[in-house]
Structures are given as C-alpha cells and as structure tokens.
Amino acid sequence: MKEKITALKAAFPHTIPVLTGFIFLGTAYGILMSSKGYGVGWTVLFSLIVFAGSAQYLAITFLTSVFNPLYALLMTLIINARHIFYGISLLDKYKDTGRLKPYLIFGLCDETFSIVCSTNPPEGVNRNWFYFFITLLDHSYWVLGSVLGGILGSIVSFNTKGLDFVLTALFTVIFIGQWKTRKDHKPAIIGVLCSVICLVIFGQSNFIIPSMIAILAALTIFRKAEKEEIKPCDEKESVQ
Fold first, then answer.
1. Comparing C-alpha atoms, which of 88, 61, 93, 64 is closest to residue 167?
2. What's the chain's Rg over C-alpha atoms?
3. pLDDT at residue 105 above 70?
4. Is the dihedral of CA 167, 132, 19, 116 positive or negative?
5. 188: how many CB neighbours lie within 10 A of its CB?
6. What number is the average pLDDT over the span 55-76?
7. Residue 46 exposed, middle or buried by CB count within 10 Å (0-12, 13-18, 19+)
8. Best exposed site among 11, 86, 111, 227 by fewest CB in 10 Å?
9. Separation of alpha carbons 203 and 159, rounded Å
10. CA–CA separation, 42 vs 151, rounded Å?
11. How many angstroms separate the CA atoms of 236 and 175, rounded?
12. Is 108 exposed, middle or buried (0-12, 13-18, 19+ CB in 10 A)?
C-alpha cells in the first residue's frame, strides 16, 4: 500500500496541467451532452468507457442525427489512428507492466502520452504504479469535468450556441503547439492544403474523410520521395 501511495504522490504533480485543461474541456462536453437531452449518467458512462475527447465531441453529432455506422466507424478510426504510433513508441516503457497493462493501453490519451514519454519515475518509485497513476488521474480529471458539466447543464439554462467550437479551438491550439515545436512544417502545410482543396471540392458536410485520405496519400508520397533524395547522397558518401 505504501508503494502505491508513494507512486501516486510522485505522479500527481505531473498531471496538474492536464487537470486544468480536462476540467474545462470535460465541463464543456458535459454541458453539450445535457443540452442534447443526455443526462449525467450517460455523460459519465461515455467518459468512463470511451475516454476519447475529440471522438466524444464528435459522437454528439452522431447521437443527434441520422446514424451512419460506417461513417461513425471511419471517423473514429481516422481521428484516433495516431494511437497506433503512440502504442508502438511505448512498447519499452509499458514492458513488464503485468496486470496493469490493459488499463494503461485503454487510458492512453494525448496528454498521458506526453507525460509518460517525457517523464521518468523518481528514484525509489515503482515504475509500473507511477505510469498507472498518471493514466488514472488523467482519466479521472476528464470524468470529473464531464460530471460537472452534466450537472451544470441540468440545473442552469443558458444558450450553448458556439460551445461546441471548443473542439475546433482544441485542435487549433494543438496545431499551433506542433507548429512551434517542430522545425519541419511540411506535414502541417500538406494537411492544411489537402483539407482546403477537399473542402472546396466536396463541400463542408463531406470533406473530412476525403481530406484525411488525401493527407495520408500525400504524406506517403512525400516520405518516399524524401528517402529517394537522401539515398543517393548516402551512397555517394559511402563510395568516398
């Protein structure tokens, strides 16, 4: 028990920034769910078993419109495809985590991934429990925010118009952050151009999936061309 408490105390300070962000985003999500007729129970259930912020916001649209299973599946896969790469990069860190591994995999989100990748447990702290509590705390913050939003939305009546823009704002902030931290802006530029072109061609209601496919194809082609440019240089150096 002492080992777990020590790991919890070590993990908590690293999750404080996530606490502030998730309380706000979770509250906005809870209010939106309430405004669409879904009570606190449904909101908590979604946050507990789905735990995918952007996909949960998107699911509100699926719940309040004619349901298209194939579209919902494709959109969810596309939005969360990045987790494939998250999982691959954490193979070493999550190695030998035993019975904790299923929850560590389930609870992995962008913020948890960032903390786990950039942080090592302090000396004397169990590595497995340290990563577990980072994941658990981040998950709890999202659920707590959702509960607060659900309760607030059920007892206070106000105009929620424009509140769903919080998801757009979230993606914008992530985009700006990535732009500032990365020197290579070509992938971001490719993403923006493909999205704008598909928006013009397919319209506002149907451009997302085509733009995702176009981005993936463009990045693949760009990556192959980049490798072909580098290869002759490497061969030249080896000959010299």
1. 61
2. 21
3. yes
4. negative
5. 14
6. 80
7. buried
8. 227
9. 28
10. 12
11. 38
12. buried
Helices (H), the chain: 2-35, 40-49, 53-63, 69-80, 82-89, 101-106, 110-118, 127-155, 165-181, 186-202, 208-239
What the block records as the tokens of 31 is 């209010």
Cα separation of 194 and 96, whole Å? 41
What pLDDT was estimated at residue 132?
95
197-216 average pLDDT score: 80
Per the model's pLDDT, the better-predicted residue between 192 and 143 turns out to be 143
Q: Map residue 68 onto helix, strand or coil.
A: coil
DSSP state of 225: H
pLDDT of residue 14 exceeding 50, the answer is yes
Buried b (16+ CB within 10 A) or exposed e, 73-105: eebbebbeeeeeebeeebeeebeebeebeeebe
pLDDT of residue 178: 63
Task: Kindly list the domain boundaries of the chain, sorted by start residue.
Answer: 2-160, 182-240
Which pLDDT tens digit goes with each residue over 137-156? 999 999 999 999 999 888 87
Query: What is the pLDDT averaged over residues 172-176?
Result: 69
Amino acid sitting at position 103: Y
CB count within 10 Å of CB 233 equals 9
